[in-house]
Design a protein that fits this description.
This protein is an alpha+beta fold. The chain has 20 helices and 21 strands.
Length: 635
């Protein structure tokens, strides 16, 4: 048992730092994003040694300036001072803030023969320990009463790192640090950047101490031996196996040969997080690293086992709990379309994987992957260069999108990564299944006729047994789905030149390409919620739709359209009769609303907004008579 005596001391900090300036030349303040290891009202300058501050400065600049953006390279360390380059001047923290580095602490191995107890004393005196191996042992620690620090043994340090969670103090300090519960062991062992963060964090913790006459630790070196993984029922375990070494300035080991060659599992076994590698411990350890194949992580077994670093394991795409996949269409009020469509308020709005994939393709010009602020010093841009349904995972059930991301770094180097839709944000969303019935019912028990069956088992394919014929869907569902899109568009003033649709002249539609574009986008999203095809083979499914403006109708307030369903070769899936059908779109200024008003009266439609249909969708949306007919076939 480790023992820690704490007395919280009043914290004193220069008012210059709080106010950012006591001198007109000094407009610098502490970077508040450096939170790791701090308690409330503590300052990094009074908490950490100057060697610890050097390491923190690698992660983020220690200081910010009002007049100029500071980089880590603008902050240098000279003797016992910190210099800040701003406005072409080098400002001294010693001069302006009377900064003085805090003293390092000492460690002392105490052998209490009376109590038959060995422990390590931590105080402000010079260390008396004679080897670094002690830090790997399970000693109790006693602290001077005025010390408020964490335990310095390696197991405790590894515990603090490995139990970090997304957006906690450590993650805020190092935004691209991917916490173990968000990266697989098999990816972590291949990711040199992530391993380097662990090395720096261990060194950061150790630089709190002077270690007396021992040679200073210049570098902590983690070497990957391999990774281990195993299945225990529906639970999957995985962990890196590593060696750890302390190196001096000449690159020579500061640990005993036995210890530096000791293999460790990074996992959890009781209170141990750095576990000696042996057969018994391999059986007993608990996994700290993420895995797609365990219900402990996902409540499902996703069977994703790529032996490579994924895009979300290269860059922390979850930092600040946002998605970096942005939708930049000026007509959209929400740039996070993924969350909007996979976790909507109403089930009708939840899309299938093929639906969202079609959306990504159709609106490709509006989607972009933003380089996060914390990666702009490394990466220039991210691009989606390929997008498809993954044909291996989730039982090949058309339920997972696989994106291929091209990463261009500032140095011009290029690398490609996979990014699965399950990882577009941090909420573990899967897509909806597919409707195989000709209805608008999104509330019954059996909405979907096809999709991912989590009980099917690993490696088994969920075969398609039923599809909807394209011509039957076209004849029985198209007009109602088109009308649903009008509900979403008709009151958008941006689309109709600051008018609602009923006040918009039909002849203006000819030059309003954005309106037709929006109609097609929203219609396609709905069409691909259904499993439409000429056969049960996945290659025979609908691949695209086409919406074409034909001109004005002879009837006032009405325009003419054509809609086609296309296969993967861009050939029509419709018969000649349906392919040549013309559709009338009513509802513009001058429309004769007699027929629409009669429908409203006959079916007691009390509201013409989309929420009216969706709030009580079991009644209103399910009964297609409640969907106002804005479209009809031209005779």
């Amino acid at each position: 048992m480790k023992i820690k005596n704490l007395t919280i001391i009043p914290f004193l900090i220069s008012p210059c730092i709080i106010a950012a300036s006591c001198n007109n030349d000094f407009d610098v303040k502490i970077n508040k994003e450096l939170k790791y290891g701090l308690n409330t009202n503590e300052s990094i300058l009074n908490k950490f040694t100057i060697e610890q501050l050097k390491i923190l400065n690698k992660f983020r600049p220690l200081l910010n300036a009002k007049s100029d953006k500071l980089n880590s390279s603008d902050i240098t360390f000279k003797d016992n001072d910190i210099l800040v380059k701003t406005k072409n001047k080098h400002l001294s923290l010693y001069k302006y803030l009377n900064y003085k580095p805090i003293a390092k602490l000492g460690l002392h191995l105490i052998n209490d023969k009376v109590q038959n107890w060995k422990y390590i004393m931590v105080d402000k005196n010079k260390s008396t320990i004679d080897n670094y191996d002690l830090l790997f042992e399970h000693y109790d620690y006693i602290f001077d009463q005025d010390l408020n620090i964490d335990f310095p043994d390696i197991n405790s340090i590894i515990k603090r790192i490995s139990t970090s969670t997304i957006n906690d103090q450590l993650n805020i300090t190092i935004p691209n640090f991917i916490t173990p519960n968000w990266i697989r062991a098999k990816a972590w062992v291949k990711n040199k950047e992530q391993i380097s963060y662990w090395e720096d964090l261990i060194l950061f913790e150790l630089k709190r101490f002077d270690f007396g006459s021992l040679k200073p630790i210049q570098k902590v070196k983690i070497s990957v031996v391999n990774f281990i993984e195993s299945n225990e029922g529906r639970y999957h375990k995985n962990a890196p196996v590593v060696t750890i070494n302390f190196l001096d300035a000449d690159g020579k080991s500061l640990l005993s040969e036995k210890l530096r060659n000791q293999k460790f599992i990074i996992g959890q076994l009781n209170q141990d997080y750095l576990i000696p590698y042996n057969d018994d411990n391999v059986k007993k350890y608990n996994s700290l690293f993420r895995d797609y194949n365990s219900i402990s992580d996902f409540k499902h077994t996703l069977d994703i086992d790529d032996n490579e670093v994924l895009f979300n394991e290269y860059v922390n795409v979850f930092y600040d709990d946002i998605t970096i996949l942005k939708y930049i269409n000026p007509l959209s009020l929400e740039n996070n379309q993924y969350e909007l469509y996979v976790n909507p308020t109403y089930l009708y709005n939840k899309v299938s994987a093929r639906s969202f994939l079609w959306f990504l393709k159709n609106d490709e010009k509006y989607f972009e992957i933003v380089v996060p602020e914390h990666r702009k010093n490394v990466d220039l841009k991210y691009e989606i260069v390929d997008k498809k349904i993954n044909e291996k995972y989730l039982n090949d059930s058309l339920s997972l999108i696989e994106l291929k991301i091209k990463v261009t770094k500032l140095d011009g180097s290029i690398k490609f990564y996979k990014w699965y839709s399950i990882d577009i944000n941090s909420h573990y969303h899967t897509f909806a299944g597919y409707k195989t019935n000709l209805n608008t019912d999104w509330n019954s028990n059996n909405i979907y006729g096809y999709g991912w069956d989590e009980n099917l088992g690993k490696g088994k394919i969920n075969k398609i047994t039923k599809v909807i014929d394209p011509n039957e869907f076209y004849e029985k569902m198209l007009l109602k789905l088109l009308s649903l899109q009008v509900y979403k568009l008709k009151d958008n003033l941006t689309l109709f030149n600051n008018r609602v649709m009923t006040k918009y002249e039909a002849h203006n539609v000819e030059h309003n390409t954005i309106l037709i574009e929006q109609l097609k986008t929203k219609l396609g999203i709905d069409v691909f919620k259904y499993l439409i095809g000429n056969g049960n083979n996945k290659n025979d499914l609908i691949d695209d739709i086409n919406v074409k403006y034909l001109g004005l109708s002879n009837e006032p307030g009405c325009v003419l359209l054509k809609v086609d369903f296309l296969d993967k070769n861009k050939n029509s899936m419709l018969n000649d009769f349906n392919r040549n059908k013309i559709i009338k779109w009513y509802g513009f200024n001058g429309t004769d609303f007699t027929k629409i008003n009669k429908q409203i009266s006959n079916y007691n439609i009390v509201n013409t907004n989309i929420d009216y249909l969706l709030k009580n969708s079991q009644k209103n949306l399910k009964n297609q008579n409640n969907i106002i007919d804005y479209f009809d076939w031209k005779e």
